[in-house]
């Protein structure tokens, strides 16, 4: 019989933080690039992996993106300018998701933020005023292992002092949900605009 979760792990980008793609598309178009080109380049796995496992800083990661795009935008200087502009837009925090996190904690259940991110991620939380909103923060770059690896989820569950069968992951990516379930957690796939009624019920709120 499935056990009711008594702790929550929740993703950051795509769940708590969202982005309007048109913001950076305007910048890309000024440099003659199709919308989404910079993000697609940044997320190429061989480039992303060292950044989210702590072997490369955010600045170093983005510098590799600039180098890759240099020939397409008229040189490295222009590519560096592009990246400086591209990373200005920080996205927005979804108030519905943040309210859900607060409700879970108010019910006495621990909440851990579970994110694949660079070593500077805690600065992002501070910039958004979110540093005190979680009982734990499982940053892949700090752990040296990334979602959806079992080792990542074991570490994240440990940070909220809860066994995997009692932890629920909310994430917007199927691959992460499958990895969490393989590690023994329950998982809920989030889609934009979700009112989170199902995880509320599952957590007994």
TrEMBL record:
<dbReference type="InterPro" id="IPR036412">
    <property type="entry name" value="HAD-like_sf"/>
</dbReference>
<dbReference type="InterPro" id="IPR023214">
    <property type="entry name" value="HAD_sf"/>
</dbReference>
<dbReference type="GO" id="GO:0016787">
    <property type="term" value="F:hydrolase activity"/>
</dbReference>
<protein>
    <submittedName>
        <fullName>HAD family hydrolase</fullName>
        <ecNumber>3.1.3.-</ecNumber>
    </submittedName>
</protein>
<dbReference type="Pfam" id="PF00702">
    <property type="entry name" value="Hydrolase"/>
</dbReference>
<keyword id="KW-0378">Hydrolase</keyword>
<dbReference type="InterPro" id="IPR006439">
    <property type="entry name" value="HAD-SF_hydro_IA"/>
</dbReference>
């Amino acid at each position: 019989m499935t056990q009711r979760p008594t702790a929550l792990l929740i993703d950051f980008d795509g769940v708590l933080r969202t982005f309007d793609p048109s913001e950076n598309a305007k910048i890309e178009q000024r440099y003659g690039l199709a919308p989404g080109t910079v993000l697609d380049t940044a997320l190429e796995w061989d480039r992303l992996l060292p950044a989210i496992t702590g072997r490369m800083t955010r600045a170093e990661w983005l510098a590799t993106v600039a180098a890759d795009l240099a020939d397409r935008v008229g040189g490295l200087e222009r590519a560096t300018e592009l990246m400086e502009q591209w990373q200005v837009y920080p996205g927005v925090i979804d108030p519905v998701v943040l309210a859900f996190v607060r409700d879970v904690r108010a019910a006495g259940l621990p909440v851990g933020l579970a994110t694949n991110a660079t070593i500077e991620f805690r600065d992002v939380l501070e910039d958004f005023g979110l540093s005190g909103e979680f009982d734990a923060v499982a940053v892949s770059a700090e752990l040296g292992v990334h979602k959806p690896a079992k080792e990542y989820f074991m570490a994240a569950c440990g940070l909220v002092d809860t066994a995997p069968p009692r932890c629920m992951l909310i994430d917007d990516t199927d691959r992460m949900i499958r990895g969490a379930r393989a590690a023994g957690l329950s998982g809920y796939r989030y889609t934009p605009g979700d009112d989170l009624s199902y995880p509320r019920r599952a957590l007994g709120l």
